Each structure stands twice: as structure tokens, then as C-alpha cells.
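Recall the central idea of this unit: under ordinary conditions, the amino acid sequence of a chain determines the structure it adopts. In this exercise we apply that idea directly, starting from the sequence alone.
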Amino acid sequence: MCTAHRLFLRRSKLPTGSLATPLHLSGVQPVVQHLARKAHHIVMTTFASLGVPNALAEVLSSQGKVDAFPIQADTLPDTLVGRDVLGRGKTGSGKTLAFSIPMVARLAGQLPGNRKPGRPRGLILAPTRELATQIAAAIEPLAAAYKLSVTTIFGGVSQNRQVSALKGGVDIVVACPGRLEDLMKQRHVSLDGVQITVLDEADHMADLGFLPVVTRILAATPPKGQRLLFSATLDNGVDKLVKRFLTDQVTHSVDEVDSHVEAMTHSVFEVDGVEAKKKLVQQLASGTGRRILFMRTKHQARKLAKQLTEAGIPSVDLHGNLSQGARDRNLLAFSSGSARVLVATDVAARGVHVDDVQLVVHVDPPAEHKAYLHRSGRTARAGSAGDVVTVVLPEQRKDTAILLRKANIKVTPVRVTADSPQVSELVGEQARYVEPVPVKAVQQPRQGSPRGNGSSRSSNPRSGGAPRRSGGGGGGQGSQGGAARQHAAGGAGGRSRRPAGPAASRTR
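Accordingly, the structure predicted from this sequence is:
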């Protein structure tokens, strides 16, 4: 038995010899093939070795991506040959590339076709505008290698740019369900030419009440097309989608549904009251690395971002009341580093993927354990380490203990103040004070998206990435949106060039 097989057996705690026969047989059960394949992935993890075309492997290599993560290594051998796949993995596991690679590879190779107005050949459904935008950003460099075109469709912005792109012909559409169905009803787009359909974060779709719309969309795609469904769980009706729309699918699970990342450290900090909590949160936000602070309400998220900025900690907010332009600018400020802190409601728990987030703080503990896991998943992504802190008031201790037990998180709460050694050790080096400069309210520009999505006039929650009640869609309107809500004090570079949105700042 080779070293790779011994290592796999030791990790999976299978009896010696249980893989010996299946490795030399064809036609065995898919689950056995899956286990055998995992043994080989210990020594065969490069994208090239998994059958990814050279053109795509070169694009990935130029981005520093040579070795595949487990969900990619597991699914690519099946997706690249056209199998339907159900992928189950925790957040931050690399699912976006797991479906982007086979979609581009197959549309460019095995499934060639002519670009036709209003008839895309590839469709990716995502629950939020943020996630749709980031999926598009990930797949565009791959598509460019074969001159395939990509466009996004979501609400909160004018549909004019989206309709124009569809009329010009597009190969791959990354869409939120509400706006896509609107355009289907207006006959701007037909899905009868879709050859590959991806449903990402299907469980989040279910949580947001999108499954009826998703069902109608999937029913409009050809039944013989390839379908890939990625979901952390199969509850709330997701299992019905699998039974109806996937054919002879292969299931790949890289982790337990409720598992947390091994490189993620969890802490529970108990405080005596609201004032002590305020001081603790400011201290936790004061480090040099990126932080995401989660709040229950949009108002509190906006308020905290403003307070932190005024305290010399550049911060931006993210929630459902922001227009798409304001969201884009705030995310750009956070990802570029001009704002070190993102204060968010649960709209960001699934839809935001920013590398190197060092700390996630549950300023307000979430209502249920799945939200805790998804919020926490903004750190320790793709093999990196990260810390998660839950701040608990006396009246929240019982509910928080129940929540953590359901999330399978074992941690001993510690009573702290802002000056406690445990807090100082977690925060590490403090960033320099950044003096905020007042910014005058500016009228929201008509062009709400950097992609030229048009004016942000739509107030229909069905057109957005999520219903209004979820904080994920609709795109809040009015003069309060846009630049008036850009609380970031900018980067520590003083007058250096900065992305649109965050206020200018001076460092001292």
C-alpha cells in the first residue's frame, strides 16, 4: 500500500484494506469512487492534473492558484465531463472556482455554440447582488481566455444596461433570481439555449424565500443540460430541487454541514453592560488587519461605522438600505484597505468574499446557529487562519450558549473589559489614528454600478438579490444613500488616491 493510501486511511479511520479493491475496479458505487479519488488527491492536487485545460490553468497560475482545494479536486473530474453534481461544503471552501472552471471549459470546448441575442449558454444563479458580482469577477478572467462574454443581472439598478448586454449576445449570465425572472417575463432573455446551469448557495435561496422563483427558472432551462447545485444543507426544500432537476448526480461533501474551520479560533467575551461593550468593540476594531463587525439592524450598523470612523478607525457599513453604488464603493474601500473595518448586517454573511479578514466580531450575537457559522466564515478562508469573537451582555448569555452548542462550537466564555490581556493579545498591533474629514452629502449619482448598470430607481424587492425583509435586496433609495453614507475616513495615506466613496482622511 502506497504512502498516500496509508495517510488517507489514517485520516478517515477506515479499516486497512477497505480501499484496496475499489481502486482497481470500474463501475463501483459513486461514493466508493469518491473515497478512492480522495486518496489520490493527496498527491494529485494541481489543476492541470485534474484535467483543467491549459489555457485556464495558465490563467489560474497567473493568479497564484496552482493547487486545487478539496471541493475543487473532488468535483472537477465529474463536472468537466458533464456530470450533474451536488456539492456540499462550508463557506470559504472554494466553490466558486469549482463551478466556474467546468462552465468555461465545457462551453469553450465540448459544447461549442454561437452567441445569440437574449439566449445565454451558461447560467449561474446567486442569492445576493454582492455574490453575483464577485462570481462574475472570478469567472471573467477564465472566460476571457476563450473570448466568452459574461454579464450580471440583479435588481437595485436600472435594467437598461442588462437588457443591452443581452441584446448584444452573451455567453454566461450571473444572475439573482428576481430580476432574471422579470427580464424573462419581458422577453428580454430566453433560457432555452442554456447548456450548463449552476445554483450557488441554494440553502440561502431557500432562507430568502427564492425557491419558487428558482424552480420556475430551472424549469425554463433544457432538461438535458448539465446542472450543478452547491448548498451547505438540503433542508427548506433544497432536497426537492435536487430530486427534480439533477439527473444521476454525484454528491461531494468536503465537510460536515455544521462544521467550522479548523484554523478558526473562537472566543466569547462577556461584558457587564452596554458602555463596557461599546469600549470593547472599539478596541477590537482598532487592529491593523481587516475586521468585519456584525450587527442585527441596519441602523445600528450605520451608527457603529460612523462612531468608529469618528474615533479614528476608518469604517464602512453594508446593509440592505444602501443603493448598489454605495454598496460597491463601500466594498471597494474595504477590499482595497482604505477602510479597515466593515460593519454589516447578515446581508454580508454569505455574499461578501474578501481575502485576509483577520477578525470577525459578533457585536450582536445572531439569532440562530447557521447564521453564526456563515458570519464566522468571512475569516479563515481558503486555508488561512482567523479569529471569531462573540460579545455577550448578561441577558444574552443563555441564548448564546444554546446557539454555540447547536453550532458545535466548544468555547469557555471569559469576562473581560477593553483593557483585558485576552483582548490585547487578540487585537495585536493597533493601527494609527486616522483623523476623519467631514464630507458633505452628495446627491446619489445616476450610474449606480461600476459596470454601468444605470440609475438606481428600482424599489421592487423581487428585482434585487434578496427580499427587502432579508436586508439583501431592493437597494434602499433616497438621498440618504450613496456618498452621504460613506463613513470611511480613507486610508492612512492621507492625500493619496482612494476609491470613490470613503471620505478623505489625514494620518497623524
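The longest strand covers residues 264-270.
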